[in-house]
Amino acid sequence: MISKTASLDLVEFVERNILPQYAAFDKAHNITHVTRVIKRSLDLVRTTGADINMVYAIAAYHDLGLSGPRAIHHITGGRILQQDARLKKWFSAEQIKVMKEAVEDHRASASHTPRSIYGKIVAEADRDLQPDIVFRRTVQFGLDNYPEMDRENHWKRFREHLDNKYSEHGYIRLWISGSDNERHLAALRACMADVRKLRTVFERFFDEEFLARRA
């Protein structure tokens, strides 16, 4: 029988040693983000029958690769997990291999289907598809990484990113049927289709985030 909660000593280890590392990342990938990914991953255990300790650890490690180049953060993150000898206390070598591959497969722009249910779980859980979360994170990423841009160029980047990732022809893929993400993605696309409404949303989040950085 699969436990309903992750091992307490594993949770303690992660909370002390792994989660604090997210404080060094941008606002779109900080402790709030990883906490959401962990929660959603654990929610998916019930419907997939996956090992909860593996799911928990994968979610906790999934973005640690942002300590290096963003373009390969999923590869770096998998290597970080695989090379963390402390995980041998809870997992076999085969489990760690599967977990490494899951971290590698979590990226939204991945061109292949995740190799295991664990990759599908973290990929699905990593999709913050509630419209307001997507919009805020997109603005945050722009302000954090392109501070030289003016408002109009941020708006242009905002629309281009949403179109490239979340539109009908975008690269995002959902791997678990019936998840909340299907409903959220439909609402997100509806807002994107109304350019006037989308501009109003952008202005609200841009002003909030811009002012927060000046406070």
Record keyword descriptors for this entry.
single chain; 215 residues; mainly alpha; 10 helices
Characterise this structure.
With 215 residues, the protein is mostly helical. It is 63% helix and 0% strand. It contains ten helices and no strands. The chain is globular. The mean pLDDT is 92.
> Taking all residues together, what is the mean pLDDT?
92
Total beta strands: 0
Report the helical percentage. 55-70%
In angstroms, what is the radius of gyration? 18 Å
The helix-strand sequence is HHHHHHHHHH
Distance between the termini: 51 Å
Structural class: mainly alpha
How does the major sheet shape up? none
* Low-confidence sequence ranges: none
The coarse silhouette is globular
Give me the number of helical elements.
10
Beta percentage is under 5%
List the helices and strands and how they pair.
Elements: H1 8-17, H2 31-48, H3 52-61, H4 73-83, H5 93-104, H6 117-125, H7 131-145, H8 151-166, H9 180-193, H10 195-214
Summarize the structure.
With 215 residues, this protein is mostly helical. Helix content is 63%, strand content 0%. The protein is globular, with a radius of gyration of 18 Å.
